[in-house]
Every structure is written in C-alpha cells, then in structure tokens.
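Why does this matter for the project? Reviewers at the last site visit asked to see concrete outputs rather than summary tables. In response, this paragraph embeds two records directly. Each consists of the residue sequence and, immediately after it, the corresponding structure tokens. Nothing has been edited or filtered.
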Amino acid sequence: MATDTAPSIIKNEDTPQGFAFGLTAYFLWGFLPFYLKAAAHLPSLEVLAHRAIWSVPVAGIVLVLLRRTADLKAAMQNRRMLAMACLTAAIISVNWGTYVWAVASGRALDAALGYFINPIFSVFLAAVFVKERLSPMQVVAICLAAIAVVILAFDAGGLPWVSVALTVTWGFYALFRKTLPIGPNQGFFLEVLLISIPCVPYIIWLEATGQGHLLQSSGWDTFMLMGAGIVTAGPLLIYANAAKLLKLSTIGIMQYIAPTMIFLIAVFAFHEPLSNTKLIAFAFIWAGLIVYTVSMLRQARGR
C-alpha cells in the first residue's frame, strides 16, 4: 500500500500508536453493521451515494490538515493515474454497495464469509498477477477456501454471490490500488470524488422527484445519510496511519478482527440463521486462515 511517508522513513516494527490506530480502524469496521442495519429502511443505492458524497469533505479536510493538496493536484493532471483511480473507484463502489445491501437484507453472515476469504484470495491474486511464489501451506489455505465456496454453492444451488462479490471486489481493489502511485489519503479522496460525480445528480433527482430521504424524510434519516460519510472515511483514514506504523504481518493478523465481529453480530445481534452447512463452510475457512497465518508468520520470521 502506498503511504504519505517516504519508504526510507518507515520502520519495519510495531509501535503503540500503530496498534491504537489499527485496533480503532478494525473495531469501527466491525461495528459498521449496526449503523447499516439502522439505515436498512433506506434504499441501498441511496445510502451508497451518500457514503461517497459525504466522504469527500471528510477526506478533503484531512488532506488540508496534512498539507497534501499539492500531491492531489499532480495526480489529477496525470491521465494514467486518473484512469487507474476511476477503475479502483468503480470496484470499491461495487464492494460498498454489495455490503450495504447484504446487511440490510439480513445477509451479514455472507458478508463476514466474504471478508474471511479475502486474505487467502489476495494470496491467490498475488500468485497469478504479481507472480509471487506460493508456499505449500498457502496452496493448502487456498484449497480450503475453495472447498468452503463449493460447499456453499452446492447447498444454495449456485454461487454464494454476496461472499464472492465482496471477496473479488476487495481483492482486486487492493491489487490495483497498489499500482496507484499516490498516498492513501490522497487516493481515497480522489476515489470518492470520482464516485460522487454520478452520485450528486442522482441524489438531486431523488430529492426533486420526492423519492429521496435527505430532505424529504425525518431528521434521523438525514443524520444517518450524512453520517455515512464519516463512518466510511473515518476508519479508512485511521487505517492509513496504522499501515505506516505496523509490520505487514501484524496488519495481516489484525484484519481478522472485523469479519469476526461481523460474524458474531450477525449471529447473536441480528439472529441470522447459522445452518450446519454454513458452519462447515466457516470451519474450512477458519482452517485455511490458520494455515495462512502460520505461513505468513514463518515468512516474516525468515525475513
């Protein structure tokens, strides 16, 4: 992941500040289903549009405070960088939209499964596109994750598309985001700015036709829609700082916090049914994650 700090300054060690930033970001992501569930009565596409629109001022203020606006101007004058930012913006839009819909539709468990699979899928993408060599343990982890997807597909009579969509979109987003030579804060602002271009006229049309909920509904709905920008931008910007102050292996382990919380919230707070088939699939995923984590720690120790 690109950072705002020069590589020579980054230390390959964990810091207390990094732990604080990392735990804050992942816990905020873990509690996000409660927010989305509270907004479940609102159309998912409208919530997605407001997530992007209200993220722009939040990310913009951060850039001004960090004095990184010059980097953004240079990026916007680079056609290749703009094209790549459009691609990552489109991918993350699908990811956000799928997640919003999944929680609102009572499928938070499927979302948790997708984010559990993601680390293993990222290893697979690295092997295919970056030509990274897979260790035997990583191959085992990928096979275990694939078995879990096959089990769910067989049980449902088709692919578990929510889980697959979240896994694939986040995996490719992370892959392409690495090729964007711009800091995370500037990159996030550029992405939400691009996403907002079609979102603004869409929201104006909704309000003009009486279908919107920003001005046409209760104050609570207005608060929820505007707050969507904070709950979207906040964790991402906090995570960007954590990434600079933690080892990659530490971040790799901490990324299980959010899907674990989503899983627990889905089962015990939202009371989504956890069938035996899903439980077996999760068992395969958790086994794969254990194998993946051991492999990652061994590689880190070797380095």
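We now turn to the second protein, recorded in exactly the same manner.
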Amino acid sequence: MSNVGAVVSSIRNIMRQDRGISGDAQRLEQLGWMLFLKIMDDKDQELEAIKDNYVSVIPKKFQWRNWAANKEGITGDELLNFIDSTEAKNKGLFETLRNIISTSNPQRAMIVKEVFEGSNNYMKSGYEMRKVINKLNEIDFTKSDDKHIFGTIYESILQELRDAGNKGEYYTPRAVTQLMTQMTDPQLGDKILDPAAGTGGFLTAAIDHIRGNYVKTVKDETTLQNSITGWELKPVAYVLGLTNLILHEIDIPDYHYIDSLKKEYNSIGKNDRVDVILANPPFGATIADGVETNFPTNYRCKESADLFVILMLQLLKPTGKCAIVLPDGSISGDGVKARIREKLLTDCNLHTIVRLPQTTFFPALVSTNLLFFEKGEPTKEIWYYEHRLPEGQKSYSKTKSIQFSEFKPLIKWWNNRKKSDISWKVNAKDLVNWDLDIKNPNKQEEDYEYSTRELMNMLEDSLSKSNELVKELKKELF
C-alpha cells in the first residue's frame, strides 16, 4: 500500500501541470468524480462476488477496471476523447453517465447520473490525466482496513476545501462530529438527517455509532441502510459525501444534490420528519435570491444558519433530537434572530450549549457553539460547558487540530452535571431577548499578548495566502 498522503500530494502536483485546471476548486472537483468512479467500481466488483446476478449500472466500457486500471491503458488524445466525446455514435464517459438509465437498479443509476450532472472534466492533457489515474490505482479500496486509509485522503481533501472554500463553508473537525453524535446517541431505527451534509461527516459518524452499539443482525443492518439521509448543495462536497457513504457500506445512499433551503417549508409533513438531525449548517453564506420567501414571514432573513434552524425545527418529529453547530452571531442579536431563538426555546428543550474556542474551525477564526436540544417541551434551564484549549496550547492550527480525547471531561460531566469553573446553568426565564450568548460567569478575563515572533508568523502566513490568491487571479485574467 502506498503512502496515501504522498499519493494525494503527487496528484495535486500533476494536476497543477494541466492547463485546464485553474485553482483548488476545479482540482478537487476533478479528483472527486474520479475517486467516485474508482470506488464505485471497486464496490461493484465486491457485490458481483457475493450477490448472484448482480450487474453494475455502469456500462462495461466505462467501468474503471476496463479503461483505467491498466497503467499502460489509453492516454493522450484518445483518453480525452473517451472522456469528453459527445458524438452520437461514440458517446464519451460523461455524455453516457449523465444520461444513464437502469431498469434493474434505477436508484443506483440515479446516483451515478447526479454525480456526473454536477461534475466536469477540466483536464486538457490526456497524458497528465493518465498519470493521475495511475496514482489513484495505487490505492486499493477493497481492503477492509482501507476505510481508515481513505480517512487520510479525506483529511487532506477537507483541509484543502477549508483553504479553498467560500465564505460560510467550515468543514467540521472529526472530533466534533464524533462528540455530537455520541452525546445525541441515535438509535437503531431512528431516521437520521443532515440537511447540510457536506462530505458526510455527521452521517458516517452516525453509521459508525449505530453499527458499533446497536447492529447485531442482518435485519438490523437493513434497518440502518434505510435510516440515513443527506442533502448537499455544493457539487464537490456532494460527490465526496456520496463516496464516503458508499465506502461506509451504504449500498444505495439516500443522499441528494439539492438546496435544502428551497425545500417547500409548508409541504413538510409527517412522512418527511425525522428522529435525529446532526448538522453544521453554513453560516454567513450567500443564499439564492428569494429563498427566504419560502419561510414564514416572521422568520425571513438572509442568514443561512438562521434559516436552517427554522427548517430543522420543521423537519424534526414531535420528540426528535438535534445537535447543531452555530456561530455566536446566531445565538445573539435582536429582530428576526430573537424571534427564531424564541421559537427554538418555546418548541424545544435546549438543554446544553458547548462553547468552543475561536480557532476550533481553523483556518476560520469564528466563535462557535454546539447546541443540543429535544423537540416537544419548552426550555426551562440551559447548561453551558466551556471547552478549553489543552494546557499550554494557545490555539488550534493545521498541525494541532482538536482531538476527541480532549472531550473526556465533558463526556464524564454530561450525565452528572455540576457547576464548575467551566460549566454553569441558566434559567430560561432569566434570558434577556432570548439571548443565548451567556459568558462564563466563573471565568477571569485574560489578556493574551502575542509575541513579536508570533505576530510576524501570522503576518507572513497572511501575505503568503494573499500572494497565492493574486497568482490565481492572474491565471484567470491573463
């Protein structure tokens, strides 16, 4: 097995040599559909081996094993034509898979169709593309322990998504998704939804949690297969999330390339509601024109995170549970923000808020909170818990990200709550204007001053990123 980090690094460098790839976003989209196609074929081969009469929905000619697996396979212009051709008598891979139909497995065919409708082939050199393909073939996703190795790929890709992402796109650290899932404790048979699913981190955490604690039989596994749903608007994140679910043994993922905020609010009925929502909705992100008119007049606004709160309250069953990430800007403020919080605290028992350090979602510097609530009864009291940085550590960073082991004190406290220097309780009646931005009353103010060396390093990092952006702009303009 090759070093996965080295493989991903090599692919990055190869793609930079291709004149068709302009910037991280296009490179990640390119890598996304190629990863999907390879992993889909690996899973198809597994299913062919264990299921009688199983036939892949992907035509034989376009199955990865038949055109990409051989390192001496087609390359150059022949490879580009194979991928891009739109000729009626010689349709290429994209033209074929965007129009794929299967009577034997229509759901799986629809997954393939959605992926290729939302993706593009940006590479202009068939020779560079062959190099990328050969690098991907160094990774064998059929091996049972390779999910952990694929996790390494995801960590690399997610870091790049964070660096290349638009405003509002903050990808959730694995430690945070694991904590939120464990504390919510979804059960076997619960309908679980992430309406801002990204690359599927919350959904795969839920799958791992339920499999590890509650799946005992084949029937249990079937129940789990039919319990997981995700919606995602960004094409790169969608493809990666779909691939992630397939690797987590979800045969036909209920995972859709849609804008959740466009879901007709008033049409959400009993059959649409779910038991558990786990999510990190985008905050500060641009919403489509007119989307806010889909919501009741009293709650219309332009802030995506606030609209997601209203949507999730509508999507929860009467006794549903939810854990979400929200910025400080959504738990304070007046006007429509206050009205949304009023509805949250009136319709649900918001029992816990975990306050995170500002650098948790590095490189974004945004103060975030984990909100845990249950629908059905109004909030009477809220427990706050302040998660602090490890002793001696001044911030989270690319090399020092938040670790699940840091949450051991929180997990121990969860079922035996007591006031301390990092935990406190607030009566809902004492809230002013439904403001949830309650500072730790036990914390002494600390004035931290950065050293000259730290300030210089921060300035150097900022200038480096600015130079990279200028280079990308020059490529686009000239």
